[in-house]
Every structure is written in structure tokens, then in C-alpha cells.
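Tetratricopeptide repeat family protein (Mycobacterium adipatum), 565 aa
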Amino acid sequence: MSITGDLDRARRLAWAADESAAKELLLSLLPAIEEADRDDLALEVSAQLGEIYLVRTAYDGVDECIRRIRDCIAAYTALAPHSPDTASMMARYTRRAHFLQAGLHAARGAHDQAADAVSALVTAPGPPECNDEHRYLIGYARVLCATALSDDDLHHLAAPMWDQVIDTVDTSTADNGLGDRLLVLAGIGYGGFCVQTGRLADAEPWLRRAGARAQAHGWELDTARTQLERAIACWSMGDHNGVDRLIDEAYPVIAKYARAHDVSRCWFYRGFTRLASAALEEADQCWEHAERHWRELGKPLYLHRILLQRSWIPIFFGRFAEATELIAQARTLLDGWPRSSWLQYARLDDQLGTVWRADALGDLGFDGAGDLDDTWDEIEAKHEASLGTTNAETGSAAFRRAMAKLEQAAELKVPAALAVDSVRYTIIDAAARAQWAARVSAPMLAGAFAVSWEWENTALTAELIEYHSARGSFSTETEAGADVPIWAGAQAVLVDAEFELPDLALADVAAGSVAGGPSLTRLGPLPPLQMDPGAPPILGHYRALAKQRYGRNITSDEPAWPTWS
């Protein structure tokens, strides 16, 4: 076979996820290319190797490939003037270098630099015969950038980029190598983004289309990845059997190709279905596997999520110090991550409040509370049979201990719930606002209400009821609240009320862009509410904590509204 034929074969191997064979083939071609003195073919080898290294997270290799491409082009630039063929080669591989640079910046979380590299790629001139390749490179670069933004919980920034990707995808059934490859990459990425942000109706057709095209080409890993995304969608819809079925089909292929991130996600969601069926030991084992692979990859945000999730297991056993330590480790990971958000910290505080609440319920004689010496079988039986009853006598020592712990839980859970719920006052889109209120705010507010009720703090419970009943306010005054930020496009995440799910789309709102200026219907927070003429506005202490910890203003700066008239 000719060198060009082998280069085409290497690309097909890479697309079929056999990067090792593709790499060996490309490296084996270099002596013949050097002997033929074909710089264009050497550039193609460097470009393809760069893509392979990018997929396999060998970022030093990507850097080296970019350097080789640019050094070669710089050498030709110094030898001007150029023949048309040389000029075409230089333009083509300048684009390839821009693509690799965009992907590398995205992988390292340098999102602004990645966007600059994509812009350079879009505007880079090139020969007309490479238009299809140019379209593919632009689309693929945007897929990588949008995926990286979602990995950092910046879904609001990823959304417009996904719109650009979808605009470049050819969904026709014609057999088109580069076009088909882009459709599969975009379908998997965009489908996963839609699942993360609750757009399940949009996710399904893209995932099925990508899966069918991948299957037609024999790209079994890509087919398995579409199954994994569909499994996660099944979990969002409460279809636990669908989760297990699709993961059982996808996992052997994903494991075969050693995709650690997707392997972790398989174990992560398999753990949820085990937890839902009260199989706590199996759930913990699943999450242990997920954590190990994410540690190998060094993904701080995913590690903080799995640690937060794993903290539920010691809570069930009554090992509260162990649960607190896991939450502390998750906090340390966020502290070391430059793109962490207040919303992630609010979730940590809420979970820490859950630990205090569970400890208090144990003192109250909760029938589902675990003992330190329980076996897995015993704790699972308690978890499954619990009726949610307590038996501590009012005024007893255990009761007093529980009340003190519930007060501490309220100090954590109420401000976090108020901060997260305040987001819905700033979401313009009505459907997104309703979904945020039902699926994100509601579980955290439910925890705040539960702690207040169990603490027997009737005043706090009444204030929470008043706050929740009042909701938000609309204003038709063009000058009112001009400095109030309005989230331009919040994406809601599906959060189950019974179990804590990953907050994959929470921080998009925390970091979202804002749109100022007057509006005929301006959604915003209420002024402070005053229930008693002789008392200050409600929830003042907890609102101050929400401002101090998370920078969230729960109410506007207007005079208090009396609620008794």
C-alpha cells in the first residue's frame, strides 16, 4: 500500500478507537516519508498523531506535534515566495495546528485561549479542496471546547457553542467520511449536554442518530458511548431498568477501549440504581470503582462529586466523622480548583448539614439509623424497612443533644437552600425557571423545612412557609432594579428528591452571563418580608449567612413588605 493509503488507514483506525494501532502505523511511515523528502506527508503524520494524543490525554505529545507543524511551516515561510502547492500545504496544516491548539487549551481548562484558537481556525484561509476538512476541524474543535466547558460546569457558555456545532452538522444519510465522523462526535457530545441540562426530548434523537451512524461504520466505542448517555437519561426519568440494561451493553466495550472517564460514569450511575434498590454495599463498591478511575485521570470536579456521593454510605451506618471527612476532602478539591463556584460550595454545606441532621435523628431514635457495628445486610434491611419514626422522649438528654445538632444542621442547610433558591428569581425563561424550582430548589428547600420541623422551631418553619409562599415578584418599572442581574439562560439539572444526584448543571447558573437594562416584565427577588409589626424581617440571620458564604442577595434592598395586611 502507498504511504497516502496507509495514512488514510491510520485515520480509519483512529476513528474506530484503535489509537495504538494507528499510532504504530503512523510512526512506521516516518522513515519512508523522510527518504521521499515529503514534508506534506510528515505534516500529516504530526497532525494525526496530535489528534490521537489529544484523545488519549497525552498532552505533552500534542504540544510536540503542534511544535513540529509550526516549525516546519515557519521554515517554509522564511523561503518565500512559494509555489501554489506549497502555499496550499502551509495553509492546510496551519489550520490543523489551530485545531490541535484549541483542543489542547480546552482539555487544560484554558477556555478563553481555546476560544481564541477556534476563532483563528475559523478565519484561517485555505485551498477550496480542503473546505470539507475545514468544516470538520471547526466542528470538532467546538465539540471539544463545549465539552470542556460542561466538564467545568460552565453549561451556559457551552450552549451557544453547541448551537454552532449543530449548525455545521450534516444529518443527511449520504455516506460522507468527515461528515459522518462529525455527526457522531457532535451527536454524542450534544446529546450528553442535553441530558445534563434536562433537555431529554432533544437528547434522544441526537443520541440515536449518532449511534446508528457509528454502528453503520463499525465504530463500536462510539455506539457504546451513545448507550451510556441514554442510560444517564433513563436515570433522569426514573427508569432504573433502562439504566442497567444500557450500561450492561455499553460497559464491556468502554472497558475494552480503556476510556477511564466513561468507565467511571458507568460505575457512578450503576451505583445509583443499586442505592435505589437498597443495595448499599453494591452501591459503595460501584462508587469506589468510579472514584479510583477519576483519581487516575485527576478530575477534581468529578472527584468532589463522587466523594460527596460516597459520604451517604457512612451516614447510613452512623459513621458521621467518616462522612464529614469525605465532605472535607471534597471541599479541599474545590479550594484547589480555580473555576469552582459558590453553588458547589452550597451543595457541600447542604450535605454537611445532612450529616448533622442524621446524627440528630440517631439521638432521637430514628428507626432507620445505623449502628457502628452493623453489617451490610443489617444496614440494608434497616434502610429498606424504615418507616421514618423516632422514639426519644421530649426533654431527655438524647432529645436535647438532637436539638443542638439540628440547630447546627439548620445553620448549614437553610442558608444553602435560600441561596440556591434565589437563582430562580433571575431565570428569564419560564420553563427553565419552573424546572429549576421543581428539580433543584425543591430538594434543598425540603431539607431546610425538614430540619426546621424536626428541630421543633415553629418560628423558623413559619418563616420558611411565608418565604416559600411569597415566591418572586415582577416589576413593570423600567428604572426599578436596573442593577439586578438576570440570568440569560439557566439550564436546569434533574435532581431526585430522594437521593443526591450529581450537580452537573448547577454551576452554569452560578457563573452565567447577565443581561441588564429595563424590561416590561422584570423577574426579581421580593423585598424583605415582615410577618410581625414588632419583629424584624423574616430569615434575617439565614439571609445574612447566604450573603456571607455565597455572595447571594436573597431579597432586594427595598423597604420590607408587611405580610399581615
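Residues 67 and 97 are 9 Å apart (CA to CA). Strands lie at 473-475, 522-524, 529-530, 561-562. ok done for today
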